[in-house]
Amino acid sequence: MLASAISVVKTKKYVAILVTAFIILAGFGAQHAWSSNGLPRIDSKTLALLATQHPVIVLFRHAERCDRSDNACLSDKTGITVEGAQDARASGKAFSADIKNFELYSSNTVRTIQSATWFSGGKKLTVDKKLMECGSGIYGSINAILKKSANNNIVAFTHNHCLTYIAKDKRGVKFTPDYLDGLVMHAENGKLFLDGEFIAK
Predict the structure, then answer these.
(1) Sequence-separated (6 or more) residues with CB below 8 Å from residue 188
(2) 172 touches 21 (CB < 8 A)
(3) DSSP reduced 3-state for 192
């Protein structure tokens, strides 16, 4: 009788584990569609799920450039527009609702520094000029940041040609990012992987 009861308890436990796993996988699949450019689409909920498995790296293009827009400049002509700053703030607020813990970096241009600052919500920003290196050198820059960050999640503001290079090199796809578009990556055994395109909601 006791053995039978224990068996039932174990069976219920295993069923509960399987059901939970199924729900997680189903939720992940529902949010993990594909973009027309061939990259998986990763929203903030899916990103939060990925971050429970390993630290994530999200690389954003900066907000709207002032020198390529008729909109009002935030300040410096080489920086971003007022509208771009507001967009960066809104993106940061939405992002932080699901990913609260991350370290923030940007390249050393006015537009990336301003974008990261408005995105940050007061979080400390580290400027790294190597995030301007948009060929194969970008991987060394990312790995150096990961090493310094002690495996924390990373958000870095960089440039469209960096994102285009990574998408082509890692996935063989053409990616032409708009302002504040992003890519999601992670590191495993010292190697960087491109998970997909970040889609803000």
Answers:
(1) 54
(2) no
(3) strand
